[in-house]
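Bug: token stream looks shifted between consecutive jobs. Job 1:
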Amino acid sequence: MTSAEKLRTPKGRSGVCTRDFGTPCAHEHSCVRCPQLRPDPGQQPRLLEIRDNLQARITEARREGWRGEIAGLEATLEAAEQKLGAMRQLAARHGVTHLGMPEFRETLGRTAT
């Protein structure tokens, strides 16, 4: 299995693919480079790991002179950075608000004794 296939496996999803069900997709699952991927903020550590791996692979490709590989990896790295930014924005917008426990005493006509 190639590293690109590992990024697309159901076990390793980074979010939800917003592509319509039944439409053709070469990725089959949520791929980091796919513009249809809606990132899941809970998967941020995994995407950070993917980003770090991509950076290491780019360094290796430069060392070995694999120019075609460099271009593809850099495109994936750029997409991963965009997804991480989207995850940070989503996490900042959707914080947890504690609403407390509702009081029903007045509604039931009872008072505390």
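Job 2, same session, no restart:
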Amino acid sequence: MFRGSIVALVTPFEKSSKLIDYQAVEKLVELHLLEGSDGIVVGGTTGEGPTLEKEEFISLLEFVIKKVNGKIPVIAGTGTIQRKKQ
């Protein structure tokens, strides 16, 4: 199904606002396309996915899909944080 080098994309944040830094995300996507990555995982456990709000995750995923423009697969991360029951 998937082959090659599939990178888990980090999620950069703006220092002052703590919002996703979409300019930095765009640069990362361009770098991976240029360097020949075979796929990108967005919002995985490496990319802070479990701590993103639902709306943030969807916005980030849509942004990366648009930037990749069908050139390589984009995989939505599905990791979560295990919490102890109280």
